[in-house]
Amino acid sequence: MTSSHADTHVTLRELGLRDGLQMARSCPSTRQKREWIRIAHDAGVRHLEVGSFLPQDRYPHFADVRELIAQIGGLDDCVSSALALNERGVDDALATALDEIVLTVSATDGHSMANIGKTTEEALNLVRYTELARRLAGCRLRLVATIPVAFGCSIAGPVRPDDVIRLACTCLETGADAIAVADTVGYAGPRQVAGLCRSLLKRIGPTPLIVHLHDTRGTGIANAYAALEEGVRILDGTMGGLGGCPFAPGATGNIAFEDLVYLCERCGYTTGIDLEHLLGIIPIIRDSMPDETITGTLGRVGPPAKIPWSEQ
Amino acid sequence: MTSSHADTHVTLRELGLRDGLQMARSCPSTRQKREWIRIAHDAGVRHLEVGSFLPQDRYPHFADVRELIAQIGGLDDCVSSALALNERGVDDALATALDEIVLTVSATDGHSMANIGKTTEEALNLVRYTELARRLAGCRLRLVATIPVAFGCSIAGPVRPDDVIRLACTCLETGADAIAVADTVGYAGPRQVAGLCRSLLKRIGPTPLIVHLHDTRGTGIANAYAALEEGVRILDGTMGGLGGCPFAPGATGNIAFEDLVYLCERCGYTTGIDLEHLLGIIPIIRDSMPDETITGTLGRVGPPAKIPWSEQ
After folding, report:
1. What part of B 131-160 touches A (C-beta under 8 Å)?
2. ipTM summary value
3. How far apart are the first and last CA of chain B?
């Protein structure tokens, strides 16, 4: 994970098995999830978020998170990532071989309360707890603090860039190793993304900065382009563009991972990902999640046939 | 029509009633088209492409082009635009009150032959003919030369920027008043768009440069953003994202006009267009073109409710 501007390699985190499932009506079986991970890894994906540490009875979609983390542990050079929302989840995560734990620290109390039932300050306490717990456990678990609604909140309204930067710094002082800024409700425009990324990279670089975008209003890929051009080198997406947000009515999901791979390669960035191979995940989505809309375009049309579009 | 970088006003050309209809299985009635134009104009759209001058028996979708041109002639400060593919079409156009005639001069002979049955050189002859004919007619008709497949061709392959620039200059020497570069088959990426627009504006500015994009591979709005940031101030779109291309299998259509309005306003450009009012066109599309996919997002989710996204 680096965020040097000169470097043209981009790390893409595929979050379909976590962010892509949390609002879905149906979900892939464990066997299908394992196949998803295998195809992604074979295609060159090196960072997969595969679940949340939540009570299994209320969140059956994520009941197999430990098995998937173990699977990724057996793959060459691949980072497993998962979400925790409370101390119990953090403890459970520490008992696995998980590489990266994700904690959410919303830019607004309104979203934070609605999302995880904690104020932003209480969410910061979970970062402190995790920092302490991993140290006591002698564990190398990487800690990512995600800042939802960093570009505006569907509950609290506008969010000031300075407040996001201050919160990012507090997260880092509290123990986070990386910061993700998330356009949870799909409010961001590319100029705004460019501006916040520029300021954040200046302030927190070389700490890894992750940009997590949704495509609610058609600007998702443009926002990703703006982030890349400012020097961001870690971006999130979900295969097919799965996902959504309970606080953004009518919102489509995350930006489609396959379209993000194409964007990067089309612009001269390298991802190490074989797009054609990656598209083997699409039939798994179609089979196991028939009610979900696949917003990604590359699965339908493929890359341009007659022009070079990638350095690979 | 200006293309000064300092100016933040963007002219958006709505092409739904021409480019959006040419591959459609059904199409709005003349009454519905008139309503479409009325809503667009009321919303602030000042540039509408409303048909092609083609034989009515083979192209019934455009049989009412004269009536629509006459309608626009009666509206305040609104430019009517239409396509012609041959001398007969140009002659017919000159007999109307049309404001702007669009001629296509492909970047490759392969596309030009497949599209209009002429080589690029023969297409240039139509520009020469039109220049002469309008002068003889004493007519102020503006002449736009559109360069299809300016970012790569699904028949001939890669297209060199220098060749596009040279062709644009030839079109201007031959009589064109404005140049449009079109990503007809949806091959473009935003860095490529930025590069070509930068070179073209340097070479042909202050001649108006129009950028016409399709959203085949998810990069359409990112490409528009890249063009805007380079100083392009005239862009095309179709309501709902209607359209397609016979030479780009599986391709979705043009970039959605409503999403383009949102992008511009979200980035601090002004369009003079009331987005909410504009969305009144969507029900006309749903009613009259039930087989077409509406790719635009703003009709589904609307603009962000809680943050300022436009200067209006």
Report:
1. 152-158
2. 0.95
3. 21
